[in-house]
């Protein structure tokens, strides 16, 4: 789907003005309209799937990014000192949360975790401000399947001396990710499950 720049009326700027119930519903609609596809796909985990969710169609959408920033910020524990995620899928998510946090007078920096160490300069895995040792960081993800991708971010952050006890995903595919996180002692929550997406998708396409 090609994106065309739009001019919104005040009533259409729901991402900045809506209460959280409306925000949640409108974000679900965006995922159904822009990100969810049915067909034959191979996931990054190597699994075959009858559907695919291209989260970046929503996380890089202006309304979607703002809605995501507001929703995820509201779900962060009070002691959160930073948000982080594995590049590339989490980049716009952690950025959105960090920007919204500044507007809410609760500034929370964002960290981006490389899949491979930078090949020059400091050769770091983690991009972003250097935080005090044992700072509490929440890992954010767009779509969780097995949970292994976000776990790479957790491990890099812990290796750097940070404390990570929670992962939040926009969508849980219900394919073992939640159980995996529980098995390694991480708290996990998702804004939507794949059942939420598919049920709403059917309503919108019927």
Defining key terms:
206 residues; Rossmann fold; two-stranded antiparallel sheet; 8 helices; magnesium ion binding; PRTase-like
Query: Per CATH, which architecture?
Result: 3-Layer(aba) Sandwich
Question: Could you say which overall geometry the principal axes of the C-alpha atoms support?
Answer: globular
**Mean pLDDT score:** 92
In total, how many domains does the architecture comprise? 1
Widest β-sheet, arrangement of strands: 5-4-3-6-7-8
Query: In angstroms, what separates the terminal alpha carbons?
Result: 20 Å
Q: Could you give the order of the helices and strands?
A: HHEEHHEHEEEHEHEH
Binding site for orotate: 145, 173
Domain Phosphoribosyltransferase: 113-179
Subunit structure: Homodimer.
Binding site for 5-phospho-alpha-D-ribose 1-diphosphate: 114-115, 118, 120, 141-149
Question: Care to describe what's here?
Answer:
This is Orotate phosphoribosyltransferase. GO terms for molecular function: magnesium ion binding; orotate phosphoribosyltransferase activity. It is an enzyme of class 2 (transferase). It holds the Pfam family Pribosyltran. This protein is of the alpha/beta class and 206 residues long. The protein has a single domain, classed as Rossmann fold. The protein has helices at residues 14-17, 20-35, 56-59, 62-75, 91-103, 148-159, 177-183, 194-205, and strands spanning 36-42, 48-53, 82-86, 110-113, 126-127, 137-144, 166-172, 187-193. It has a six-stranded mixed beta sheet with strand order 5-4-3-6-7-8, sandwiched between helices. The protein starts with 13 loop residues before the first helix and ends with a helix.
